Amino acid sequence: MSEARIVTPGEKMGKTEEYLGGENTFVSNGEIYAEVTGTVETDGRKIQVKPSVSTPPVPRLNDVVVGKVFRIRNALALVRLSYVEGNERREIPSQEVAALHISNLSQDYVDEMSDVVREGDIVKARVTNPQSGNIDLTTAEPGLGVVSARCQRDSTRLRNEDGKLVCPECGREESRKVSEDYR
Ligand SMILES: [Zn+2]
Question: Which domain holds residue 10?
Answer without folding.
Answer: 6-51
